[in-house]
Amino acid sequence: MRLWPAAGKTTMTWIAPLTLQGSHATLVPLTHEHHDDLVDAVKDGELWNLWYTLVPTAEGMRAEIDRRLGLQKQGLMLPFTVIAKSSGKPVGMTTYHNIDSANRRVSIGYTWYRQSMQRTPVNTECKFLLLRHAFESLQCIAVEFQTHFFNRTSRRAIERLGAKLDGVLRSHQVLPNGSLRDSCVYSIIASEWPAVKANLDGLLRGGG
Length: 208
What we know:
- The chain is an alpha+beta fold.
- It has helices at 35-43, 61-73, 121-137, 152-161, 193-205; strands at 20-21, 25-29, 77-84, 90-100, 105-113, 142-148, 164-174, 180-189.
- Helix content is 30%, strand content 30%.
């Protein structure tokens, strides 16, 4: 059965807001109601000070929510708030972006978690939920990830999922500090999903 849009259909007929439930985290559509908790979350570790990331500041959180919701209206992004099951509160953000309905491809990114949630099962499960929906519901051909060349933690986390490095886009972006970002591009393709899924299941059973 064909689940992707025919020519001329809008992106959002293929990919639309939804809630994804896990054992450790729930991904819910981003709204302004999450603002205060997301401000509290981003202050945990002052994540915006990592020069190789694009994490919003506490003061810039409202503008970042506006930006993501604006891109959603254009069919270019589907933003989520990450809710930790342990507290019931928002602990970070993630998105589908670079949405390409004609070629059934999406990227997962613009992701951050409060410092106390990093290196916990929350990140692994969020990636699992997004990948499962992409491959099993949206019938994606490929899912892509991008990160800064110098973001070693992010690169290790992406590789741990089972994604493969496609290449490095050199001088790909100008960052707010004026430096040029080399972007490492990874992907998982549909034929790899069964093995990646088994790997993620194993990681989650082992504590993430």
